[in-house]
Structures are given as structure tokens and as C-alpha cells.
């Protein structure tokens, strides 16, 4: 899983997962951690989150 800043294309995070887990596994946890750190650094900045539909899956899976 890769997270990039849209403004400059810098990588924010990269996570390797086993091949037998869903592509979205751990994505919410990672995103929450990144958002907290961005808010600490730039509290007034508006954040927009976009995701690839391949990372979506039903809750409880």
C-alpha cells in the first residue's frame, strides 16, 4: 500500500502486506496515523482523502 501527497508527489508511507490479505487490510489504521501527524504539523490545512476502489471492502471482513 502506498500513500502519496498530491501536491508534490512525495511518498508519505509504504506498507508491504502478505499476498493472502485484502489490498485494503490496515488502510484505515495507516490513514488515521498519517492524518494525526499531518494535523500536528499543519492544523489549518484542509485534507482531502481519495482512495482506489480496489482498497474498499465490507466492514467485518
Structure in words:
This protein is of the alpha+beta class. The chain has 1 helix and 2 strands; from the N terminus they run ββα. It has a two-stranded antiparallel ribbon. The radius of gyration is 13 Å and the shape is elongated.
Quick overview:
With 61 residues, the protein is an alpha+beta fold.
Task: Give the SSE order as H and E letters.
Answer: EEH
Q: Quick one: how many beta strands?
A: 2
Strands of the biggest beta sheet: in what spatial order? Answer: 1-2
* Principal-axes shape call: elongated
Number of discrete domains: 1
Uncertain parts: none
Average of per-residue pLDDT values: 78
Spell out the key features of this protein.
61 residues; alpha+beta; two-stranded antiparallel ribbon; 1 helix; 11% strand; elongated
Please render the helix and strand layout as text:
Elements: E1 2-4, E2 11-14, H1 27-41
Antiparallel strand pairs: 1-2
Amino acid at each position: 500500500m502506498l500513500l502519496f501527497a498530491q501536491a508534490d508527489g512525495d511518498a508519505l508511507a509504504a506498507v508491504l502486506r502478505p499476498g493472502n490479505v485484502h489490498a485494503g487490510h490496515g488502510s484505515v489504521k495507516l490513514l488515521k496515523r498519517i492524518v494525526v501527524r499531518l494535523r500536528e504539523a499543519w492544523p489549518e490545512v484542509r485534507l482531502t482523502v481519495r482512495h482506489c476502489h480496489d482498497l474498499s471492502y465490507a466492514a467485518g471482513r
